[in-house]
Structures are given as C-alpha cells and as structure tokens.
Amino acid sequence: MNKSAKIYVAGHRGMVGSAIVRRLNALGYLNIVVRTHAELDLCNQAAVNGFFADEKPDAVVLAAAKVGGIHANNTYPAEFIFQNLMMECNVVQAAHANNCQHLLFLGSSCIYPKLAEQPMTETALLTGTLECTNEPYAVAKIAGIKLCESYNRQYGRNYRSVMPTNLYGENDNFHPENSHVIPAMMRRFHEAKVRGDSEVVVWGTGTPMREFLYVDDMAAASVHVLLLDDDTYQTNTQPMLSHINVGTGVDCTIRELAETMQRVVGFEGKLVFDTTKPDGTPRKLMNVDRLKKLGWEYSIDLETGLKKTYAWFLNNVEGLRQV
C-alpha cells in the first residue's frame, strides 16, 4: 500500500486503535483519517454513509467496538450485541459502497467455543457452544467475520479479519468492574498498595488459563496483516476461513497473572481468591501458526508488558475512564 494512502482508523482513541495509529505513523503512513464518537456515531448508518462518501478512504481499520469484561458483558448484553453489530454492518457496507478495497476487522478470541480444543485454531469457529457470559459480544464478532467473508466472495473485496487474544496496555479501560482482567486487577492492586491493605481479592478460583498480548504487539500484527500482498495472504488463508489468530501462543493461570501483577505493582499483602465469582472459559490459548507463516511473531513478554502498562498507568491515573 502506498505511503500516501488514506487510511481510516475507526476507534482511534481506544487502546487498540491508538496503538494502530502509532504503528502506521511509525511506518510512514501519515494520511490517517480519524473521528471521535461525538463527531461520528458508527451506529448511525446515515452518518457513516455520509462520512465515507466525503472521505473516500483507500483502507479501513475497524478497531471501534463496545468492549468489557465478564461483569460488563453480563450486565449489558443488549448493548454489546446491538452496538457491535451496527458498527460493523454500517462500516463494512459503507466501505464497499464507496469502492474501498482494503479493510481490516478486529475481532476477539471469544468467538471460539467454550470447550474448543486447545490451542484454538481458526477452524474451531462455529464448532461448539460459546461461553455464556459473553455470547452476545461473540455472536456480533462472528457476524463481523462472516460479513467480511461475504463481501469478499460476492464482490471480490479484500476485507480481512484478525482475532486477538486478551489484550492489555496503555489507553486501556481501568474501571475496577467494567474492564478486562489485567486493567481491573492492576487498578485493584495499585489502590490496595496506596491504602496499605493487607489483602487483594481476585475473582474466581485462579485456575483458568489465559493468554495475554501487549497492545503494541497487536498493532504491529494488525498492520502487518493489513499490508500483506494478496498472494502471501491468500496462500495462508481460505475463502471461507479468512480470519487470523493473533497472540503469543503462551498462556498462564489467573493465579500466575495475579502473582506477576503483585510483583510489578509492588503490593506486599496476600492474595485471596473469591470462588463465588465466575471463572469464565477454563482455558483460552490461540494457535498462531498461520500468523507465523505470514511472517509475524510477538516480541513483548507478559512481565515486560505489565511493567510498561503500569508505568503508563502511574502517569495517567488521575484521568482514567470510570465507565
């Protein structure tokens, strides 16, 4: 893709979107188009159509999404399925209608069945029952994959999808209840340290296993997939299986995560696991063989990533999002 290409990054203020903008700029792609939610509501079809008609982007990165952890997914299921479906339908259709040939859709590892064989390969999609706590969100993301595949099949578009594992890093949502496990846990440990608490309570049994990817690695992988030439991409994908897993291929237990977090934050109390809270999926590990064949591997390990994230957290703690 030419360095002067106009690239629209939807969700540029979010954790992933902001990292993708940084990555594109670092590679010399400076013609980046962005809009805040106040400037463009992606759930408003007429507004999205008007934006695409005016801007005519050469490529789109759809990083905008309604996201959250177990608590948020359980509490707001209607918002999670409705908003995500509306955003992806509006953006993909408007991109096609305005002859935008290149689009990258960002999904989630929660698209795979709750009891999928580990590590999860792309072929596991739609082979079993989803985890009930985030099923509405997962269904919306599966629809986004199939949306891209359908436009590719019918119209010859080059719309690609990447499915990241659990992400973390700067610009994350650090709300103690409505966020994902790492930012919620980091804030809890930090505040406990500041207060001088004797213990920190972690949800669940601590036995589920999770894989985590630092957001700058996710951005690098996303841009790598977006910029791949057609021959390389098509050799490693199939028309009906176009999504690509993005992760490290390495996981740890929630207990191990909590112990690493305790060390990074410097909390000296004890850990307590609240077994009355849900664990979610027993294990979520991505098979990233396809991504490796496409020429990309992660570079930031968990402890290094947590240190980077905590340094950012300390510099931004006063302005953290609360919802």
Automatic annotation (TrEMBL):
Q: Which residues form the active site?
A: 137
Is NADP there in the keyword field?
yes
Task: Give the catalysed reaction(s), semicolon-separated.
Answer: GDP-beta-L-fucose + NADP(+) = GDP-4-dehydro-alpha-D-rhamnose + NADPH + H(+)
Q: What is its EC number?
A: 1.1.1.271
Please name one Pfam family that this protein belongs to. Answer: Epimerase
Residues annotated for NADP(+) binding in this entry: 11-17, 106-109, 141, 164-167, 180
Q: Which InterPro entries match?
A: Epimerase_deHydtase, GDP_fucose/colitose_synth, NAD(P)-bd_dom_sf
User: Which residues does substrate bind?
Assistant: 188, 203, 210, 279
Domain of life of the organism encoding this protein: Bacteria
What sequence ranges are listed for the domain NAD-dependent epimerase/dehydratase? Answer: 7-228
Under Gene Ontology molecular function, one entry of this record is: NADP+ binding
| Record key words, sorted | Isomerase, Multifunctional enzyme, NADP, Oxidoreductase
Q: What does this protein do?
A: Catalyzes the two-step NADP-dependent conversion of GDP-4-dehydro-6-deoxy-D-mannose to GDP-fucose, involving an epimerase and a reductase reaction.
Question: Which PANTHER family is this protein grouped with?
Answer: GDP-L-FUCOSE SYNTHASE
Family note? Belongs to the NAD(P)-dependent epimerase/dehydratase family. Fucose synthase subfamily.
Please state what the protein is called.
Answer: GDP-L-fucose synthase
State the organism named in the record: Limnobacter thiooxidans
Q: Which gene encodes it?
A: fcl
